[in-house]
Amino acid sequence: MRIARFSIDGTVGFGVVEGEPTDEGGLRLDIIKGHPFAEFERSGHLVPLSEVRLLPPVLPSKVVAIGRNYAEHAREMGNEVPDVPVTFFKPSTSVIGTGDEIRYPSISSDVHHEAELAVVIGRLCRDVPRERAREVILGYTCANDLTARDVQQREKQWARAKGFDTACPLGPWIETQLDPADLAIMCTVNGEQRQLGRTSEMVRSVEDLIVHITESMTLLPQDVILTGTPAGVGPVRDGDEVAVSIEGIGTLTNKVVRRG
């Protein structure tokens, strides 16, 4: 099931995305009563997806991100795979949705794309055992862990490099019925392929990451885990269109603009 968060005529809500782009009439949104983090009903009120604005699929209290979770990416950055996951945060103010603009930060001249599988948490959880990790997941979406690489290299903490406004595009929706173990993940810039990998190349699985994170902190519904990026990261510039596509989910697309 594909669950989208949307705005139409000033009203914000959730809906289930039905159909395929090739269908007559294209994709449609069945607006739901309630929200997807509890029991909900479909209204049966169908709206063409083209008539709504897709918003970030969730509003997380925190985005917990994992670095160096693909061995080839760690090597391309001159690093070894760490003994324990490298964990950092992206603030909620960095989150944007598909179609929103990535605002190039004034503190950097070298922002890089990082295509990632994002895990959306569906229920409050802490100290989750590995065998129950899937139970706390609502679904999965595409993410772009944008990084001001020059800032990251000169500052010991990654907060500014990874947490600037618009540094965390998410979308286009949440796919709830998906096995994340072996999915193709790709990033293109202006239609040119930059990254291509598979989630099976992750050093630590989704389940392992949930166990590791919840050993130390409580995750809330709508929180997001970024699972790391495959090799091939590179710069984006003013005017570029960046697209992250993940098998079984869809494509997250954003344009880069110089911050005014």
UniProtKB/TrEMBL annotation:
Q: Which GO terms describe its biological process?
A: carboxylic acid metabolic process
Q: Where is the Rv2993c-like N-terminal domain?
A: 1-57
Q: Which residues form the Fumarylacetoacetase-like C-terminal domain?
A: 62-257
Q: Which GO terms describe its molecular function?
A: acetylpyruvate hydrolase activity; isomerase activity; metal ion binding
Q: Where is the signal peptide?
A: none
InterPro entries with a match to the protein in the record: Fumarylacetoacetase-like_C, Fumarylacetoacetase_C_sf, Rv2993c-like_N
Answer yes or no on keyword Metal-binding.
Answer: yes
Keywords (A to Z) from UniProt: Metal-binding
A Pfam family that the UniProt record links to this protein? FAA_hydrolase
Task: Spell out the SUPFAM superfamilies in the cross-references.
Answer: FAH
Q: Can the keyword Metal-binding be found in this entry's annotation?
A: yes
PANTHER family from the entry? ACYLPYRUVASE, ACYLPYRUVASE FAHD1, MITOCHONDRIAL
Q: What is this protein called?
A: 2-keto-4-pentenoate hydratase/2-oxohepta-3-ene-1,7-dioic acid hydratase (Catechol pathway)
Organism equals: Streptomyces zhaozhouensis
The organism's taxonomy opens as:
Bacteria, Bacillati, Actinomycetota, Actinomycetes, Kitasatosporales
